[in-house]
Amino acid sequence: MSRFPYLRQDFAASIVVFLVAVPLCVGVAVASGVPAELGLVTGIVGGLVTGLMPGSSLQVSGPAAGLTVLVFEAVSEFGVATLGVIVLIAGLLQLAMGFLRIGRWFRAISVAVVEGMLCGIGLVIIAGQIYAAAGLKAPETGIGKIIGLPGAFADALGSTEALTSLAIGAGTVAVIVLWKKLPKKVQAVPGALAAVVLATLASLAFSLPVVTVQVEGLLGVIQPPGADAFGELATPAIWGTIVAFALIASAESLFSAAAVDRLHDGPRTQYNKEMIAQGAGNTVCGLLGALPMTAVIVRSSANVQAGGKTKASRVLHGVWILLFAAALPSALALIPLPALAGILVHAGWKLIPFRQIAELWRDHKGEALILIVTAVSIVAVNMFEGVLIGLALAVIKTAWEASHLKLEVIDKGAGPIQAYLSGNATFLRLPKILGSLEALPQDRPVELDLSGLHHLDHACRTALESWAERHSAPDTEPVKVTTAQPAKATAP
Q: What GO CC terms are in its UniProt record (predicted)?
């Protein structure tokens, strides 16, 4: 026992994490448009491969709701057979980023963009899973899912089967929400697991007409990518999906690591090593044709709260998933699909950062706007392009705020007009600079002092030189430009 001083705590925590993970693994797989067992395969790899590697000692990896939208889009466009190649190459990219020590740079990503990404994903998940809960086919686009909801509800009202299915989904959400209000001893059983068990028992007891999970067997769904799948790499479009998988999975994992570090007093996350661990896990998942993995905050926080002390808890949780998938695969066939849809509706709701949006709107309206635009872009376009739009807005906002510029004009009525520029002159401020300078009278000598500038980019320098050359009237002295260095800058 001296070699494993925390075995008892880790063993107990692993059971809790296993119970939390199973319904989420299955639900994410079904929502992603792949066999349920593939979600379990990714959970097993997250425990047995990523769990054994250094990086973050207590966070737990597996299939995540945050990637559901992207995986579904990839499967719809390229097929399940190509998913393994996408995940494999994304994992290799993560490994490369880890070895190149890029992991820590993910901490520099704007929080507003990350929160906006989660918000957009949450909205798409909720909208899509409402259709699944009612047993209806969802539109393909995010905006289509949201716009089509009133019609979907109208269709459901006219069908007893759809209403029954929707009731099971709504009941699942209600159980998860209300479970937290029960005594602590009861909460030892995770709410999502309790909701799935209750929904399954209800559908069996009353012979409800609901669709259940299709089971193919663990070995039956593992399909290493073949030559045809690798041939898809010649398609340029697939590389955008691969990069999106790698970047979004990495960002989600490393932000999760930062959140988990705040929950415990143990060793801090080593970000580059965690990136390597995530890359190794996704490489293995790709070779098995499984779902991509990220660190999952729900499982990770459950691990910490259940008393996990070392990585043994997450490794053991992978062992339990493996034993469950091998010994009891037929149990999956009893689970109603609307119950899994209810779990994901709740997971999507948890992804929407209501408190952060309110705080940002109160204190940093620019950041709140980036969050909202990122979320709306993900719903209206797709996840990858939505995140790129958010990142571009964050960069523009930062550049704008960094280019503080002050123009002071002193006109004593006689002699030259003196104009002083101070701060940072970038191309973003050119309209303001040139507008003010062009308003100066052309029949008076002008002295432009640039010595107060901390930064003058090439675009501004060229524009100011051009203005100085053309500003003065023919019978007026040319504009005199003074810089921090001895100036060559007088117009000819």
A: membrane
